[in-house]
Amino acid sequence: AQEQLAKKCGTTKTYISRIENDASDIRLSTLMRIIREGLGGNLKLSVDI
């Protein structure tokens, strides 16, 4: 599953694994790309002040 996701997103299985295991910080733009390209979804972010 990690390898397929990585391929869809243009990244490596190792990077996906590091994200899943909290071993790597992730940029919001990268998370959005993984969700969009890898999972076919959209990220919605809400800020309440």
From TrEMBL:
Q: Which Gene3D superfamilies match?
A: lambda repressor-like DNA-binding domains (1.10.260.40)
Q: What does the record give under GO molecular function?
A: DNA binding
Q: Which SUPFAM superfamilies did the record assign?
A: lambda repressor-like DNA-binding domains
- Give the species: marine sediment metagenome
One Pfam annotation, family name? Answer: HTH_3
List the InterPro entries hit by this protein, alphabetically. Answer: Cro/C1-type_HTH (IPR001387), Lambda_DNA-bd_dom_sf (IPR010982)
| Protein's name in the database | HTH cro/C1-type domain-containing protein
The record's section on PROSITE patterns has:
HTH_CROC1
Where would I find the HTH cro/C1-type domain in this sequence? 2-34
